[in-house]
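User: C-alpha coordinates for Methyltransferase domain-containing protein, please.
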Amino acid sequence: MRIEVPVTSLLRLLRKRIGDFPYPHQIAGLLDNPLRRALENPSASVDAIGLTGGESVVEIGPGPGFFSVEIARRLTTGRLVLFDIQPEMLDKARRKLDGAGYRNVDFHAGSADAELPFADAQFDAAFLAEVIGEVPDKDACLRSLARIVKPGGVLVFHESFPDPDRLNLTELRALAEPHGFELAIARGSRWKDVVVFRKPVAAQEKRRL
Ligand SMILES: C[S@@+](CC[C@H](N)C(=O)[O-])C[C@H]1O[C@@H](n2cnc3c(N)ncnc32)[C@H](O)[C@@H]1O
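Assistant: Done. Predicted C-alpha coordinates:
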Protein backbone atom coordinates (compact mmCIF):
# COMPACT_ATOMS: atom_id res chain seq x y z
CA MET A 1 0.00 0.00 0.00
CA ARG A 2 2.82 2.42 0.88
CA ILE A 3 4.18 1.94 -2.64
CA GLU A 4 0.84 2.42 -4.38
CA VAL A 5 -0.47 5.53 -2.63
CA PRO A 6 2.22 7.93 -3.99
CA VAL A 7 1.63 6.41 -7.45
CA THR A 8 -2.09 7.08 -7.05
CA SER A 9 -1.46 10.72 -6.11
CA LEU A 10 0.89 11.15 -9.03
CA LEU A 11 -1.63 9.62 -11.48
CA ARG A 12 -4.39 11.87 -10.11
CA LEU A 13 -2.20 14.97 -10.51
CA LEU A 14 -1.22 14.02 -14.07
CA ARG A 15 -4.88 13.37 -14.99
CA LYS A 16 -5.80 16.84 -13.73
CA ARG A 17 -3.05 18.38 -15.82
CA ILE A 18 -3.29 16.40 -19.06
CA GLY A 19 -6.67 14.62 -18.96
CA ASP A 20 -7.60 10.92 -19.16
CA PHE A 21 -4.95 8.39 -20.09
CA PRO A 22 -4.68 4.65 -19.47
CA TYR A 23 -2.78 3.30 -16.48
CA PRO A 24 0.80 3.08 -17.83
CA HIS A 25 1.88 -0.43 -18.81
CA GLN A 26 5.40 0.43 -17.62
CA ILE A 27 4.17 0.20 -14.02
CA ALA A 28 1.85 -2.78 -14.53
CA GLY A 29 3.84 -4.66 -11.88
CA LEU A 30 2.15 -2.55 -9.18
CA LEU A 31 -1.20 -4.04 -10.23
CA ASP A 32 -0.14 -7.62 -9.76
CA ASN A 33 1.51 -8.05 -6.38
CA PRO A 34 0.98 -10.22 -3.29
CA LEU A 35 -0.16 -7.30 -1.12
CA ARG A 36 -3.00 -6.46 -3.51
CA ARG A 37 -3.84 -10.16 -3.75
CA ALA A 38 -4.14 -10.37 0.04
CA LEU A 39 -6.21 -7.18 0.35
CA GLU A 40 -8.52 -7.62 -2.63
CA ASN A 41 -9.03 -11.38 -2.86
CA PRO A 42 -9.54 -11.51 -6.66
CA SER A 43 -11.07 -14.96 -6.42
CA ALA A 44 -13.96 -13.66 -4.27
CA SER A 45 -14.50 -10.74 -6.68
CA VAL A 46 -14.66 -13.06 -9.68
CA ASP A 47 -17.14 -15.30 -7.81
CA ALA A 48 -19.60 -12.39 -8.09
CA ILE A 49 -19.85 -13.02 -11.85
CA GLY A 50 -21.56 -16.31 -11.01
CA LEU A 51 -19.80 -18.42 -13.64
CA THR A 52 -20.71 -22.07 -14.03
CA GLY A 53 -18.02 -22.99 -16.59
CA GLY A 54 -19.46 -22.78 -20.09
CA GLU A 55 -19.88 -19.03 -20.46
CA SER A 56 -18.40 -16.60 -22.90
CA VAL A 57 -16.83 -13.71 -20.95
CA VAL A 58 -15.18 -10.46 -22.01
CA GLU A 59 -12.84 -8.65 -19.64
CA ILE A 60 -12.28 -5.02 -20.60
CA GLY A 61 -8.98 -3.50 -19.45
CA PRO A 62 -7.45 -6.63 -17.93
CA GLY A 63 -4.02 -5.01 -17.54
CA PRO A 64 -1.47 -7.70 -16.65
CA GLY A 65 -4.23 -10.23 -15.89
CA PHE A 66 -4.71 -9.95 -12.11
CA PHE A 67 -8.35 -11.10 -12.43
CA SER A 68 -8.06 -12.87 -15.79
CA VAL A 69 -6.49 -16.05 -14.42
CA GLU A 70 -9.33 -16.39 -11.92
CA ILE A 71 -11.90 -16.00 -14.72
CA ALA A 72 -10.12 -18.41 -17.10
CA ARG A 73 -9.84 -20.99 -14.29
CA ARG A 74 -13.64 -21.04 -13.91
CA LEU A 75 -14.32 -21.36 -17.65
CA THR A 76 -13.85 -25.11 -17.97
CA THR A 77 -15.59 -25.23 -21.37
CA GLY A 78 -16.23 -21.53 -21.96
CA ARG A 79 -14.04 -18.80 -23.41
CA LEU A 80 -12.50 -15.56 -22.16
CA VAL A 81 -11.80 -12.56 -24.37
CA LEU A 82 -9.40 -9.90 -23.10
CA PHE A 83 -9.75 -6.41 -24.57
CA ASP A 84 -7.29 -3.63 -23.67
CA ILE A 85 -6.20 -0.38 -25.24
CA GLN A 86 -2.53 -1.18 -24.59
CA PRO A 87 -1.10 -4.15 -26.53
CA GLU A 88 1.73 -4.23 -23.97
CA MET A 89 -0.82 -5.02 -21.25
CA LEU A 90 -2.25 -7.83 -23.38
CA ASP A 91 1.26 -9.26 -23.82
CA LYS A 92 1.72 -9.32 -20.04
CA ALA A 93 -1.70 -10.94 -19.54
CA ARG A 94 -0.94 -13.50 -22.26
CA ARG A 95 2.33 -14.47 -20.55
CA LYS A 96 0.54 -14.86 -17.24
CA LEU A 97 -2.28 -16.97 -18.68
CA ASP A 98 0.10 -19.09 -20.78
CA GLY A 99 2.26 -19.65 -17.70
CA ALA A 100 -0.80 -20.82 -15.76
CA GLY A 101 -1.71 -23.19 -18.60
CA TYR A 102 -4.91 -21.47 -19.81
CA ARG A 103 -5.48 -21.63 -23.58
CA ASN A 104 -9.18 -20.69 -23.56
CA VAL A 105 -8.41 -17.00 -24.04
CA ASP A 106 -8.45 -14.58 -27.00
CA PHE A 107 -6.79 -11.16 -27.06
CA HIS A 108 -7.97 -7.94 -28.75
CA ALA A 109 -6.44 -4.46 -28.66
CA GLY A 110 -8.67 -1.40 -28.97
CA SER A 111 -10.49 1.31 -27.11
CA ALA A 112 -13.59 0.47 -25.12
CA ASP A 113 -15.26 3.73 -26.08
CA ALA A 114 -15.10 2.98 -29.79
CA GLU A 115 -17.59 0.37 -31.04
CA LEU A 116 -16.43 -2.90 -29.47
CA PRO A 117 -15.47 -5.37 -32.25
CA PHE A 118 -17.82 -8.14 -31.10
CA ALA A 119 -21.18 -9.48 -32.22
CA ASP A 120 -24.49 -8.49 -30.67
CA ALA A 121 -25.26 -10.61 -27.58
CA GLN A 122 -21.92 -12.46 -27.88
CA PHE A 123 -21.16 -12.58 -24.15
CA ASP A 124 -22.78 -13.98 -21.03
CA ALA A 125 -20.72 -11.60 -18.91
CA ALA A 126 -18.55 -8.50 -19.15
CA PHE A 127 -16.07 -7.74 -16.35
CA LEU A 128 -14.33 -4.39 -15.76
CA ALA A 129 -11.96 -3.89 -12.85
CA GLU A 130 -10.57 -0.41 -12.20
CA VAL A 131 -11.13 0.51 -15.86
CA ILE A 132 -14.27 2.56 -16.44
CA GLY A 133 -12.81 5.63 -14.69
CA GLU A 134 -10.06 5.73 -17.32
CA VAL A 135 -12.37 5.52 -20.33
CA PRO A 136 -12.93 9.04 -21.74
CA ASP A 137 -16.38 8.40 -23.28
CA LYS A 138 -18.02 6.21 -20.63
CA ASP A 139 -21.48 6.50 -22.15
CA ALA A 140 -20.25 5.15 -25.51
CA CYS A 141 -18.55 2.29 -23.66
CA LEU A 142 -21.78 1.39 -21.82
CA ARG A 143 -23.76 1.56 -25.08
CA SER A 144 -21.38 -0.94 -26.65
CA LEU A 145 -21.47 -3.19 -23.58
CA ALA A 146 -25.27 -3.19 -23.66
CA ARG A 147 -25.09 -4.43 -27.25
CA ILE A 148 -22.58 -7.27 -26.73
CA VAL A 149 -23.99 -8.69 -23.46
CA LYS A 150 -26.79 -11.25 -23.93
CA PRO A 151 -30.24 -10.69 -22.44
CA GLY A 152 -30.00 -12.32 -19.02
CA GLY A 153 -26.22 -11.72 -18.98
CA VAL A 154 -24.28 -9.65 -16.47
CA LEU A 155 -22.05 -6.60 -16.40
CA VAL A 156 -19.70 -6.58 -13.41
CA PHE A 157 -17.70 -3.61 -12.15
CA HIS A 158 -14.92 -3.91 -9.59
CA GLU A 159 -13.74 -0.58 -8.17
CA SER A 160 -11.21 -0.34 -5.36
CA PHE A 161 -8.79 1.73 -3.35
CA PRO A 162 -6.30 3.18 -4.31
CA ASP A 163 -7.52 3.62 -7.89
CA PRO A 164 -7.47 7.40 -8.49
CA ASP A 165 -10.54 7.10 -10.78
CA ARG A 166 -12.61 4.87 -8.51
CA LEU A 167 -16.35 5.23 -9.25
CA ASN A 168 -18.94 4.69 -6.53
CA LEU A 169 -22.25 2.81 -6.73
CA THR A 170 -24.28 5.93 -7.55
CA GLU A 171 -21.96 6.83 -10.42
CA LEU A 172 -22.02 3.26 -11.78
CA ARG A 173 -25.82 3.17 -11.68
CA ALA A 174 -25.98 6.52 -13.48
CA LEU A 175 -23.82 5.03 -16.23
CA ALA A 176 -25.37 1.57 -16.57
CA GLU A 177 -29.10 2.03 -15.96
CA PRO A 178 -29.79 4.38 -18.90
CA HIS A 179 -28.52 1.54 -21.12
CA GLY A 180 -31.07 -0.91 -19.74
CA PHE A 181 -28.93 -2.69 -17.14
CA GLU A 182 -30.59 -3.43 -13.81
CA LEU A 183 -28.75 -3.49 -10.51
CA ALA A 184 -28.51 -7.09 -9.25
CA ILE A 185 -25.82 -7.11 -6.54
CA ALA A 186 -23.84 -4.33 -4.83
CA ARG A 187 -21.19 -5.39 -2.34
CA GLY A 188 -19.30 -2.45 -0.98
CA SER A 189 -16.68 -1.59 1.61
CA ARG A 190 -14.32 1.34 1.97
CA TRP A 191 -11.70 -0.74 0.12
CA LYS A 192 -13.66 -2.13 -2.79
CA ASP A 193 -17.04 -2.29 -4.51
CA VAL A 194 -18.23 -5.20 -6.61
CA VAL A 195 -21.36 -4.19 -8.50
CA VAL A 196 -23.30 -6.59 -10.72
CA PHE A 197 -25.86 -5.38 -13.26
CA ARG A 198 -28.09 -7.69 -15.26
CA LYS A 199 -29.38 -7.12 -18.78
CA PRO A 200 -33.06 -8.02 -18.58
CA VAL A 201 -34.60 -10.63 -20.82
CA ALA A 202 -37.24 -8.82 -22.87
CA ALA A 203 -40.84 -9.92 -22.23
CA GLN A 204 -41.12 -11.30 -25.78
CA GLU A 205 -37.98 -13.44 -25.31
CA LYS A 206 -39.21 -14.60 -21.88
CA ARG A 207 -42.34 -16.01 -23.55
CA ARG A 208 -40.18 -17.89 -26.06
CA LEU A 209 -38.05 -19.55 -23.30
C1 LIG B 1 -5.82 0.46 -13.66
S1 LIG B 1 -5.60 -0.72 -14.94
C2 LIG B 1 -6.52 -2.10 -14.26
C3 LIG B 1 -6.04 -3.41 -14.82
C4 LIG B 1 -6.78 -4.65 -14.25
N1 LIG B 1 -8.18 -4.62 -14.56
C5 LIG B 1 -6.57 -4.76 -12.78
O1 LIG B 1 -7.49 -4.44 -12.02
O2 LIG B 1 -5.45 -5.15 -12.40
C6 LIG B 1 -6.67 -0.16 -16.23
C7 LIG B 1 -6.58 -0.97 -17.50
O3 LIG B 1 -7.58 -0.50 -18.40
C8 LIG B 1 -7.01 -0.30 -19.67
N2 LIG B 1 -7.76 0.78 -20.36
C9 LIG B 1 -7.77 2.09 -20.05
N3 LIG B 1 -8.56 2.77 -20.90
C10 LIG B 1 -9.05 1.87 -21.77
C11 LIG B 1 -9.90 1.96 -22.92
N4 LIG B 1 -10.41 3.12 -23.34
N5 LIG B 1 -10.19 0.83 -23.60
C12 LIG B 1 -9.68 -0.38 -23.20
N6 LIG B 1 -8.85 -0.52 -22.14
C13 LIG B 1 -8.54 0.58 -21.43
C14 LIG B 1 -5.56 0.07 -19.38
O4 LIG B 1 -4.72 -0.13 -20.49
C15 LIG B 1 -5.25 -0.85 -18.21
O5 LIG B 1 -4.82 -2.10 -18.64
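User: Anything notable?

Assistant: The first strand starts at residue 56 and ends at 60.
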